[in-house]
């Protein structure tokens, strides 16, 4: 009925069907041509993506120039010059290939998009794999005459790149020979528009490309993880490990988000994933090297690589002391912790305070506009509880900064556990409320009773009580305490909080993970329910962000030591809290502050489902 135009008669209506590329005007007396939509270079979203791609391309080109200029320095030579330049050039092409996804699609760009993406990313990841293999060979082939030494000197690890690339080329040739990508028109996502986009052709081949990249990334991560503790000032295995974690996190998040979006936003998600994963590789691998080359050139010397000679007559320094450079005197070790006067401590504290201020401002906006539809439609009480709990999530990260003591060691973990439990259980309560609101429309149904009684709100105290019990057991058996790390930095005393019972700590994280998984599942089921202010999609994406951060946290946390462990924990708290805040409240603030015309009951009533339009009289 939505594509008919009618001539009212005396007794009946005479209607004709509009063409698929047309839609009826509001009076249903004329067929109008549908506007053509795609991710355009003149669109704000397209401009933003293109600018990001070009900016990161320029940064990559600058880094490449820096490495070429300093190619004779130890930090560049020690990590295989050839592989470094190949990786930088492939990352430059990764950024530029995202531009193929923007603009009016045609047969050539549809094919080039996928083939270029597949090949340049394969070269990049296989280069990372080759670098990790080189690191392993460099430390396992020290003894003369060993076969591993031959492989190292012959550069055999470099052959990984053409071999891996050849396999991806074969996959692409099979894809193009059976069911290549082509231009497609989406008529259903936006009934009054024609969305032109590239169809993948063979979805199986597309996922074969992604799966192969995933296998390469997993292989690179595994090899780099094995080499992370090998000695060397310029051993980059730790950075390669983290870069692969970021890469895998981005593409694991990409899959469900890609399938839950439609139209030009599907293309935007793919472009964003390409840029995010490329930035992750660039930042994790090359930022530490650029820091040493440009800011700390004193560390970029062959002397740094050499071992100090042992003195002929030696005495053992005390554990809280270390020898001077001449090895003639024992000096007291400096005490190290994540201090408020440390640059990293200042950065983390400023981030926490800035996010706290932003959360407080958003809370003020929602209180001021509490009588508007967008605030009322998504349960005011739960919204305010969630904002207050997120405010405390940001503030609780400050407990991890400063000189540790018994009180702060206990407060860190207990406060973190409780405020995050309240936040995630509130999200769960909101998702249950969304389900009940749409499943309880018929009078007399028991679901309607649960909705009106606010039974879903009881999820918060029940979930919080379980976390309280876990924390009480933790504090009663093996509570956190102050500990001194003597081994991570031999010339320093690192004061830090020991978790006490590691099992209890992971029980707290596991329980939060169960709540997040439950919230994600319920929100995912409710994502397609009709309503202008249905926030299920935003809740789904917020839980994806939350889970991605803490899944990444676990291996990174376990592979770091000293105050870096504290930094990783604080960063994970801030990142996951910021993800919840942005995903859930960003779209609402946009409507409240920038598009108040959409914040009305009329807008809510006009968004009816297809079933309603089908039965209404034209």
Automatic annotation (TrEMBL):
Localization annotation: Cell membrane
Q: Which Pfam families does this one have?
A: 7tm_3
List the PANTHER family hit by this protein, alphabetically: CALCIUM-SENSING RECEPTOR-RELATED (PTHR24061), VOMERONASAL 2, RECEPTOR 118-RELATED (PTHR24061:SF545)
- Per the record, the major location class is membrane
Any one Gene Ontology cellular component term annotated for this protein: plasma membrane
Q: How does it sit in the membrane?
A: Multi-pass membrane protein
Q: Which organism is it from?
A: Tupaia chinensis
> Which keywords does UniProt give here?
Cell membrane, G-protein coupled receptor, Glycoprotein, Membrane, Receptor, Transducer, Transmembrane, Transmembrane helix
Task: Spell out the molecular function terms from Gene Ontology.
Answer: G protein-coupled receptor activity
Residue ranges annotated for the G-protein coupled receptors family 3 profile domain, each copy included: 45-309, 344-608
Chain segments annotated as transmembrane: 45-68, 80-103, 115-139, 204-227, 239-259, 271-294, 344-366, 381-402, 414-438, 458-482, 503-526, 538-557, 564-587
- State what protein this is by name: Vomeronasal type-2 receptor 26
The keyword Transmembrane belongs to this UniProt entry's keyword annotation: yes
Please list the coiled coil stretches.
Answer: none
């Amino acid at each position: 009925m939505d594509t008919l135009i009618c001539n009212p008669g005396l007794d009946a209506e005479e209607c004709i069907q509009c063409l698929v590329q047309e839609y009826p005007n509001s009076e249903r007396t004329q067929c109008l041509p549908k506007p053509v939509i795609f991710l355009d270079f003149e669109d704000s979203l397209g401009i933003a993506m293109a600018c990001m791609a070009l900016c990161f391309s320029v940064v990559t080109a600058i880094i490449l120039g820096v490495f070429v200029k300093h190619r004779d320095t130890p930090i560049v030579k020690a990590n295989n010059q050839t592989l470094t330049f190949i990786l930088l050039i492939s990352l430059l092409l990764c950024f530029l290939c995202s531009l193929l996804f923007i603009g009016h699609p045609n047969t050539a760009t549809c094919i080039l998009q996928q083939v270029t993406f597949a090949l340049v990313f394969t070269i990049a990841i296989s280069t990372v794999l080759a670098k990790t293999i080189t690191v392993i060979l460099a430390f396992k082939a020290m003894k003369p005459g060993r076969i591993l030494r031959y492989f190292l000197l012959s550069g055999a690890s470099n052959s990984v790149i053409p071999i891996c690339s050849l396999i991806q080329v074969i996959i692409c040739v099979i894809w193009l020979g059976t069911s290549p990508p082509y231009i497609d028109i989406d008529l259903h996502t936006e009934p009054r528009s024609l969305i032109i986009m590239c169809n993948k052709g063979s979805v199986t081949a597309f996922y074969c490309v992604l799966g192969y990249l995933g296998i390469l990334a997993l292989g690179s991560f595994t090899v780099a993880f094995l080499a992370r503790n090998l000695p060397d000032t310029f051993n980059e295995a730790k950075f390669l490990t983290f870069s692969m974690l970021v890469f895998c996190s981005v593409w694991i998040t990409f899959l469900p988000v890609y399938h839950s979006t439609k139209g030009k936003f599907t293309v935007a998600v793919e472009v964003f994933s390409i840029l995010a994963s490329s930035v992750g590789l660039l930042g994790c691998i090359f930022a530490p090297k650029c820091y040493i080359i440009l800011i700390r050139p004193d560390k970029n010397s062959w002397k740094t690589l050499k071992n100090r000679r042992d003195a002929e007559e030696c005495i053992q320094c005390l554990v809280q002391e270390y020898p001077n450079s001449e090895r003639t005197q024992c000096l007291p070790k400096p005490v190290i912790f994540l201090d408020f006067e440390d640059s990293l401590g200042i950065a983390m504290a400023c981030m926490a305070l800035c996010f706290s201020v932003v959360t407080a401002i958003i809370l003020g906006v929602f209180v001021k506009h509490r009588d508007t539809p967008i605030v009322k439609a998504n349960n005011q009480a739960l919204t305010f509880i969630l904002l207050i709990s997120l405010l405390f999530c940001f503030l609780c990260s400050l407990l991890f900064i400063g000189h540790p003591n018994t009180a702060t060691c206990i407060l860190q973990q207990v406060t973190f556990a409780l405020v995050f439990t309240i936040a995630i259980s509130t999200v769960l309560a909101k998702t249950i409320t969304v389900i009940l609101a749409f499943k309880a429309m018929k009078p007399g149904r028991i679901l309607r009773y649960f909705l009106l009684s606010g039974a879903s709100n009881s999820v918060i105290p029940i979930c919080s009580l379980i976390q309280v019990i876990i924390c009480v057991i933790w504090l009663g058996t093996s509570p956190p305490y102050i500990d001194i790390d003597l081994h991570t930095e031999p010339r320093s005393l690192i004061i830090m909080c020991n978790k006490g019972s590691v099992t209890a700590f992971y029980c707290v994280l596991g329980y939060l993970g169960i709540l997040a998984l439950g919230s994600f599942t319920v929100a995912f089921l409710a994502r397609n329910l009709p309503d202008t202010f249905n926030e299920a999609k935003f809740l789904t994406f917020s839980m994806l962000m939350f889970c991605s951060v803490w899944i990444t946290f676990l291996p990174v946390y376990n592979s770091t030591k000293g105050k870096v462990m504290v930094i990783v924990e604080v960063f994970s708290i801030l990142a996951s809290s910021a993800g919840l805040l942005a995903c859930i409240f960003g779209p609402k603030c946009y409507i409240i502050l920038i598009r108040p015309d959409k914040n009305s009951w009329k807008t809510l009533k006009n968004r009816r489902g297809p079933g309603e339009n089908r039965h209404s009289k034209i």
